[in-house]
C-alpha cells in the first residue's frame, strides 16, 4: 500500500482527551471501588502509592496514552496503565489511530512541545500547539506494520546507544591511564632503556612554578566595550575559548593583571563550579584578565614546559619530572 492512501490531519481529530484531576478520596491502601492513582511517580516508575475512588476520578485504561501536562518534563509520554489520572497528567484515548503509533508520534514531537510551553512559573503543555500537531495518518493495517517495525528496531537502537555510552567511559578511562603513564615516566621507559638519563623526581606544582594564583577577588564592573575578562566558561578542555567574554574598563583591568597576568605557556585551571579541574594552556599572545573561579599556574621555564604541566595537572597534583 503506497503513501497515496495516507492523509494528513491534526492530533485533536483522531483522539479523545481529558485532563487528570485530584479525586475526592485518596487512600494508601485499596478500598471498595478504588483504582490505582497514577501520579507522576506511578507514571514514571509504576510504583503505586495511593488509591482513588472511581466516582470522582478521570480514569485511564491500558490502551490510553498518558502525557505529562504540567511541570518541567511536560510532553513526556507513556501508556499501558490503568487507574485514576493524576492532576499533572492528561489522558489521550486513540479513536482513529493505533495506540503505539500515537505514542511514537507524540514522543517524536517532544522537542517541539518542550520549546513552546505555556505559563511563566510552572510550564505546561501549550494546548494550541499540541492539538494542532500535524500527523501523517496511514490506514490502520499499515499503522500496525509500522509499529511492528518500530518494536523490532527501537530496542536495537537503545542497545546501540548504551554501548556507545560505555565506549565514551572506556575512552575517558584510557585517556586518564595514558596521562598517568606519561607523567610517571612509564610511557617512555622503553625509549630511555640503555640511555644515560637522569632520574625522575616527584615534585609538587609549587616547586616547579614561579607563581600559582587565582583571578581577581573583587569582581570588576562589566562594561559594553573594554578589556577582555575570562571566566570558567572560557576554559575548555586543553584550550582557551575567546568567544563570549565579558568586558571591563582599563583601570579595573590594570588592577586585575597586577594580581594575575596570564602569558604564553601559562596553564589555567577551573577552580570553582561544575567544570572544576578543567585545564587549558595559553598558546597565543592575548591580553585578558581572569576572575576568581580560574587559577593560574606559571611554570618555571628552566624546569618545566607549559604543555607538560597541562597534561600533568589532568592526571595528579603531584608531578613527576626528570631532573
Task: Explain the layout of strands and helices.
Elements: E1 7-10, E2 15-19, E3 26-27, E4 34-38, H1 40-45, E5 51-53, E6 59-60, E7 65-68, E8 77-79, E9 83-85, E10 89-94, H2 99-108, H3 110-114, H4 127-130, E11 134-137, H5 140-184, H6 189-192, E12 200-204, H7 205-208, E13 209-214, E14 222-223, E15 227-230, E16 246-248, H8 250-259, E17 267-270, E18 279-281, E19 289-290, E20 294-299, H9 306-315, E21 318-322
Parallel strand pairs: 4-9, 15-19
Antiparallel strand pairs: 1-11, 2-10, 3-5, 4-5, 6-9, 7-8, 7-10, 12-21, 13-20, 14-16, 15-16, 17-18, 17-20
The name CATH uses for the topology of the largest domain is Adenine-n6-DNA-methyltransferase TaqI, Chain A, domain 2
Q: What gap, in angstroms, lies between the N and C termini?
A: 77 Å
Secondary structural class: alpha+beta
Strand content: 25-35%
Amino acid at each position: 500500500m503506497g503513501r497515496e492512501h495516507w492523509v494528513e490531519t491534526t492530533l485533536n481529530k483522531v483522539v479523545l482527551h481529558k485532563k487528570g484531576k485530584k479525586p475526592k478520596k485518596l487512600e494508601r491502601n485499596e478500598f471498595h471501588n478504588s483504582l490505582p492513582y497514577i501520579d507522576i511517580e506511578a507514571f514514571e516508575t509504576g510504583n503505586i502509592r495511593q488509591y482513588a475512588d472511581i466516582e470522582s476520578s478521570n480514569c485511564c485504561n491500558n490502551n490510553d496514552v498518558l502525557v505529562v501536562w504540567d511541570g518541567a518534563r511536560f510532553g513526556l509520554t507513556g501508556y499501558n496503565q490503568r487507574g485514576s489520572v493524576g492532576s499533572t497528567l492528561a489522558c489521550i484515548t486513540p479513536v482513529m489511530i493505533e495506540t503505539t503509533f500515537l505514542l511514537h508520534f507524540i514522543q517524536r514531537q517532544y522537542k517541539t512541545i518542550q520549546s513552546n510551553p505555556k505559563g511563566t512559573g510552572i510550564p505546561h503543555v501549550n494546548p494550541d500547539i499540541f492539538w494542532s500537531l500535524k500527523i501523517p495518518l496511514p490506514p490502520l493495517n499499515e499503522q500496525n506494520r509500522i509499529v511492528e517495525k518500530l518494536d523490532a528496531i527501537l530496542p536495537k537502537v537503545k542497545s546501540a546507544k548504551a554501548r556507545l555510552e560505555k565506549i565514551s567511559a572506556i575512552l575517558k578511562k584510557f585517556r586518564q591511564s595514558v596521562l598517568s603513564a606519561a607523567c610517571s615516566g612509564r610511557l617512555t621507559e622503553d625509549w630511555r632503556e640503555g640511555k644515560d638519563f637522569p632520574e625522575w623526581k616527584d615534585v609538587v606544582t609549587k616547586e616547579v612554578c614561579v607563581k600559582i594564583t587565582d583571578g581577581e577577588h573583587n569582581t570588576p564592573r562589566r562594561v559594553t566595550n573594554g578589556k577582555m575578562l575570562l571566566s570558567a566558561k572560557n576554559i575548555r578542555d586543553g584550550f582557551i575559548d575567546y568567544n563570549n567574554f565579558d568586558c571591563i574598563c582599563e583601570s579595573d583591568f590594570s588592577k586585575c593583571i597586577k594580581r594575575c597576568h596570564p602569558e604564553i605557556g601559562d596553564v589555567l585551571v577551573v577552580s570553582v563550579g561544575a567544570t572544576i579541574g578543567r585545564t587549558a594552556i595559553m598558546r597565543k599572545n592575548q591580553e585578558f584578565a581572569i576572575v576568581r573561579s580560574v587559577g593560574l599556574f606559571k611554570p618555571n621555564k628552566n624546569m618545566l614546559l607549559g604543555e607538560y604541566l597541562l597534561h600533568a595537572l589532568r592526571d595528579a597534583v603531584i608531578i613527576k619530572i626528570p631532573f
